[in-house]
Design brief:
heterodimer; A: mainly alpha; two-stranded antiparallel sheet; 17 helices; globular; B: 170 residues; alpha+beta; four-stranded antiparallel sheet; three-stranded antiparallel sheet; 25% strand
Chain lengths: 417, 170
């Protein structure tokens, strides 16, 4: 961090800051130079921080009333819903909050894909982000098991059985994960323990994510390096803070709509049936945010290769900074990439839809084609496209295209101040 | 190591310390890992006895053993014939029905799809056996995988007839 020159005005502040420079940190966060052309797609970092804090607070409260035991878990969740004061609200915020968290993280990730935010010098930010995403999926999966409904039980069975595909050690690994010979009480208690732990790991990684961000500074819609601070930047506070808060408000409207008007639409009705190890529901469907990966898993006819493909589809994102060979970050100046980006978005949406459909007939065929395209996009198209694509001229600064395009008198005025 | 430097006593001490340290860390970490394995109370429930005297031919029951469902099916002569008249070379996981059902009338197997652990449904699927609704695996009247993503036949647990009416699983 660059602002070592901050000196607190009060004597006490100076005394404290010399011993623990928290005030310098806060000054850095206020003055942090931010590109002035950031659009609303850049507000999801703040929204995600809000989501994480919301999940941690509501989760700690739910943990006060929940009982992690196969005989009591389902009933204790109903107890929260019916007896605990505002228990219904807190649980619905937590359950829908998970979906909102993933909605925001997908927008955040796809924003990075569009504007090339993962490219040098921001690879570490991206990789930390991918680890956070992976931990989010693990946390969400284990959280979904806790109510001990039918989908909890069978979702847990299917996902933990993925590890039985490991050659040689498959069975011992799954028995170790379960603490038994099937998903049971030991599985539930350890999932509760880990579900409580992982969000705090995520919080730690979020701090590293932001720290790594503050070294090179934000990417921006035109994806050029900026001089900081300069005419191209504004201080984080109040400009970005106010904008982020406004975006958060809009996001909260969507959030509140789900919580208050359709709190169960994103869940599965079978999860209101208590877990029964003797009966598998007709369709086991994971939560919506895991569906694309589920589709990839199912579209490979071989068990081990299906599992490998599913994990590979996530790992491929981790090495994306080295798969995309283009030096130009923003899709605005990459006419072909821009179109392929939208095809990828469509491809992932198709995969998600196919993940919710039964794995047979036309659905399976489409899922296979979409899976193939997903890998072709990252492993073949991106490395070649970066070398071949004829990119558009990139402006030398943010101020320039604004002035060249349509003179805006207010803009001149602001800069003169 | 460069040529002029011989192996010193100190190098030996370093290597020995690292090795001992690694053993110590391993010994400390092992209990933390092993505590997650099936515990004594889980292992103690390792066998179940089932009375199958009232089961009619063509019917099956499902019992829980070690937290897993076990199918006990009393097969009809047609089902036995169907299971035995298959040329096993063409099967994804070739096993003779004779090896799977010691007493041809009784088929005892884990009701757990070998794909991802769902419970298959009885008297369903293209081979009149079991069908897994999760990812579409079809099993025949011997519980052998015939079509779909599952890699193996339904597993046969260790079991024995204690008397004419009782099966002990495990």
């Amino acid at each position: 961090m660059s602002d070592h020159n901050y000196v607190p005005s009060s004597k006490l502040g100076k005394w404290f800051n010399d011993r623990l420079p928290l005030l310098s940190l806060s000054a850095h966060l206020r003055e942090y130079p931010t590109p002035k052309n950031l659009n609303y797609w850049w507000t999801f970092g703040g929204i995600l921080t809000f989501c994480l804090i919301t999940q941690i607070i509501t989760g700690i409260i739910l943990g006060m009333h929940y009982v992690a035991h196969v005989d009591f878990a389902f009933d204790s969740v109903e107890h929260i819903m019916r007896d605990v004061n505002y228990g219904w609200l807190i649980r619905y915020v937590h359950a829908n909050g998970a979906s909102m968290f993933f909605l925001a993280v997908y927008i955040h990730i796809f924003r990075a894909l569009y504007y090339g935010s993962y490219k040098s010098p921001r690879e570490i930010i991206w990789i930390i982000g991918m680890i956070i995403y992976l931990l989010m999926m693990m946390t969400a999966f284990m959280g979904y098991v806790l109510p001990w409904g039918q989908m909890s039980f069978w979702g847990a069975t299917v996902i933990t059985s993925l590890f039985s595909a490991i050659p040689m050690f498959g069975e011992s690994v799954t028995n170790w994960l379960w603490g038994g010979f099937a998903v049971g009480n030991p599985t539930l208690t350890r999932f509760f323990s880990l579900h409580y732990l992982l969000p705090f790991l995520i919080l730690g990684l979020v701090i590293l994510h932001i720290w790594a961000l503050h070294v090179p500074g934000n990417n921006n819609p035109i994806g050029i390096e900026l001089k900081k601070p300069s005419k191209d930047t504004v201080p984080f506070h109040p400009y970005i803070v106010i904008k982020d808060l406004f975006a958060l408000l809009l996001f909260l409207i969507v959030f509140a709509f789900f919580v208050f008007y359709s709190p169960n639409i994103l869940g599965h009705s079978d999860n209101y049936i208590e877990a029964n190890p003797m009966i598998t529901p007709a369709h086991i469907v994971p939560e919506w945010y895991l569906l694309p990966f589920y589709a990839i898993l199912r579209s490979v006819p071989d068990k081990l290769l299906g599992v490998v493909a599913m994990f590979a589809s996530i790992f491929i994102l981790v090495i994306l900074p080295w798969l995309d060979t283009s030096k130009i970050r923003s899709a605005i100046f990459r006419p072909i990439y821009k179109q392929l980006y939208w095809i990828l978005v469509l491809d992932v949406i198709i995969l998600g839809y196919m993940g919710a459909m039964p794995a047979e007939g036309t659905y399976l065929l489409i899922a296979r084609l979409a899976t193939t395209y997903y890998f072709v996009h990252f492993l073949i198209i991106l490395p070649i496209l970066g070398k071949k694509e004829k990119t558009l001229p990139v402006p030398p600064s943010i101020t320039e295209p604004v002035l060249a395009d349509a003179p805006n008198p207010q803009m001149f005025k602001k800069q003169e101040e | 190591m460069s040529d002029d430097k011989k192996v010193q006593r100190r190098d030996f001490i370093f290597t020995a310390s690292y090795a001992l340290g690694a053993v110590g860390v391993g010994a400390t970490v092992w209990p933390l890992i092993d505590q997650m394995n099936p515990d004594r109370s889980v292992k103690a429930l390792a066998s179940t006895e089932v009375n199958v005297g009232s089961l009619e031919p063509g019917k099956s029951i499902t019992v829980l053993w070690r937290g897993k469902p076990v199918f006990i099916k009393r097969r009809t002569p047609e089902e036995i014939a169907e299971a035995r008249n298959v040329s096993i070379e063409n099967l994804p996981h070739p096993e003779k029905d004779e090896d799977r059902a010691k007493n041809p009338e009784w088929l005892v197997m884990l009701g757990i799809c070998t794909h991802l652990g769902c419970v298959p449904l009885g008297n369903k699927g293209e081979y009149n056996g079991w069908f897994c609704p999760c990812h579409g695996s079809h099993y025949d009247t011997s519980g052998r995988i015939r079509k779909g993503p599952a890699p193996k036949n339904l597993e046969i647990p260790k079991y024995e007839f204690v008397n004419n009416n009782t099966i002990k699983i495990g």
